[in-house]
# Entry
Amino acid sequence: MKNYVLDYTTMIRKSFISALVLLVSLAVNAQYAGFAVGFYNLENLFDTQHDEGKNDYEFLPDGSYGWTQQKYESKLKNMAQALADMGTDRSPEGCAFIGVSEVENAHALSDLVNQPPLKARNMQFCHIEGPDKRGVDCAFLYNPKYFTVESVELFPYVYTKPEDQGRQTRGFLTVKGKMAGEEICVIVCHWPSRGASAFYRNEGGRQVHELRDKIQKENKKIKLFIMGDMNDDPSNESMMKYLGCKSEIDDVEKGDMYNPWYNTLVKKGEGTLAWDGSWNLFDQIVISQNLLNQHGKKDFSTLKYHSSHIFKRPYLITSEGKYKGNPKRTHAGGSWLNGYSDHLPVVMYLAKKMK
# Structure
């Protein structure tokens, strides 16, 4: 277990101003502690060895990607850089925890957390091998200085159509623990891709909703984070109807989740992945009502949501050519770009007044 185009001058200026406002607001009183949490789709973090029963042949030295040890080690270095930088705009020690998707196995995760920038923080991981036919799983990275793991479970995504019986895909990695002295549950997801109809992602939303209800029934005080690559935007039915997300804090009622990324995409036009000249925002973190200050309250006596943003650094973006302005991928157009991911990470900030 331990183991589309961007105006960057405007973007960086806005990020700096937002960061400054947050830091000032939290530093006015040294009794307040800030915490960063995140999610990142690592885009095919495979090792170079075949896993029996998995269709990982593209990511072998003699596979279509020519996935050599050199490429693997470079991918690890790049991923570790991005993961270590996440949250440091506003929290110097980075994220307390990060959900990740598209990682092959515990071996790759062990190699990842042993990269110098993550090892320096003693980052650990939680992972349960899942049934996905390509072999990609979700995982949970955490800094034990800030988050203590108490339990880890993998709940299966269940295909409900008779014609789909026997199919298997990524489940819902569920980690319970404590942060800032409070009980926390994180559900890390990677819902079915857009190669499948919306029905399957709606099912993902419905099934996670049921899982969430079960967890909250067992522990009414637990604070819930649902994060992942949903393969849907915040405005899609899977998120709004089936998972029960609301886009405005004051509209969230008992049993709902708050989704700050709706306004990020719909009002600001920002996303985490670019496709055919436009942005999508598939990578989301949504939270339970008990993490919110509603109706003008500013009570941080318990852990509460403060703000969120898409994590953007110039090194994560293609700087020239056909894909200029898009996330810098590991491979594109048949070439190795020595990049990071086709997705950008997302980060959420929380605060609490410490005794």
